[in-house]
Design a protein that fits this description.
By secondary structure, the protein is mostly helical. The chain is built from eleven helices and two strands; from the N terminus they run αααααααααβαβα.
């Protein structure tokens, strides 16, 4: 399956115009203007272009490897097209590998799913964009524990503090409970009764992490 990058040329032209306008404006700022102008004019366009091209090439290879029946199904799926276009728009503004791989996995899994729930998939996409990278990394620990079974922990806080020395405890106490608000993890009495102490993935949380962490591993 070949992805036509010409579909996104209008986006690139618009971004180039915005970038040129900013570069012209910052060049007028005394002292710092020249440096900022150089960054916008020389480095940022190259970075965005490389990021877009790599994502397009990687995803093209992913989709080319799918069976022909799946390829034909997604070619005729308007819902899949919408997720695809939305992703490409985000890639131009995204520089975090964790999130880029997550978007790529969403597209692969949505293609492989025989009966995809595109409302839920659209929420996966939105949720991945709202989570900070540290939350994505923490969810990956749950993925390694509950899906890959390559690590084990009971208290996620103790595990993080022992492995990631730079993490601030107060920061963790904010970003981890916040994932409960999204319905990804829980420490309810019911979950503790079934799985033991600590935080556990909800059923929704399990579907979410499987969609964003596989088959392309971090």
């Amino acid at each position: 399956m070949c992805i036509d990058s010409n579909l996104y040329d209008h986006k690139v032209v618009r971004d180039e115009l915005i970038r040129n306008t900013i570069a012209a404006s910052v060049s007028m700022i005394p002292v710092a203007g020249g440096t900022l102008s150089l960054l916008f004019d020389k480095y940022l366009p190259s970075t965005e272009q490389k990021r877009r091209d790599k994502f397009l090439n990687d995803l093209s290879n992913d989709l080319e490897s799918l069976p022909n029946l799946i390829t034909q199904r997604i070619l005729n799926s308007e819902e899949y097209h919408n997720i695809l276009l939305k992703t490409f728009k985000s890639i131009l503004e995204e520089d975090k590998t964790e999130r880029i791989n997550g978007y790529r996995n969403i597209l692969i899994n949505a293609a492989n799913d025989e009966a995809p729930n595109f409302n839920e998939i659209d929420y996966f996409y939105k949720l991945l964009g709202e989570l900070v990278v540290d939350q994505i990394k923490i969810l990956h620990l749950f993925y390694l524990r509950d899906c890959k079974e390559t690590i084990w922990f009971t208290d996620i806080y103790d595990y993080i503090y022992s492995k990631w020395k730079e993490f601030d405890s107060n920061y963790c106490k904010v970003i981890i409970p916040e994932m409960m608000r999204y319905g990804i993890i829980t420490n309810s009495i019911e979950s503790k009764r079934e799985f033991g102490d600590g935080y556990h993935l909800t059923n929704f949380g399990k579907r979410f992490i499987l969609y964003i962490f596989s088959p392309i591993e971090l």
